[in-house]
Amino acid sequence: MVLFPNEIRVRRSLAKRLRNGGFTVTANHAFDAVTAACAAPREGQPGT
User: Fold this and answer.
1) What is the pTM of this model?
2) Given pLDDT bands bounded at 50, 70 and 90, which one contains residue 7?
3) How far apart are CA 48 and CA 19, in angstroms?
4) What are the DSSP calls for the chain, one per residue?
5) Greatest pairwise CA separation for the chain in angstroms
6) pLDDT digits over 22-46, tens only?
7) Domain spans in the chain, listed from the N-terminal domain onward
8) Is 18 in contact with 25 (CB distance < 8 Å)?
9) Is 5 left (phi over 0), alpha (psi -120 to 50) or beta?
10) Other CB atoms within 10 A of residue 7 CB
11) Handedness of CA 16, 22, 24, 30 (dihedral sign)
12) How high is the pLDDT of residue 33?
C-alpha cells in the first residue's frame, strides 16, 4: 500500500491520538527491510 501525504485526511480523533503520544509515526524508516520481508517466501504459500 502506498500512502500519498497530500491525499491523507487526518480526522480529529487521529490528530488527538498523535498529539497525546503513545506511538511514533515514521516514513521510510525500514523500507529495504520491509520490501525484503514481503518478497521472502512464506510458509504454506506458493509465491509472493
Assistant:
1) 0.38
2) very high
3) 37
4) ----GGG----HHHHHHHHH-SS---SSSSHHHHHHHHHS--TT-S--
5) 43
6) 777 788 888 899 889 888 888 887 7
7) 10-39
8) yes
9) alpha
10) 7
11) negative
12) 92
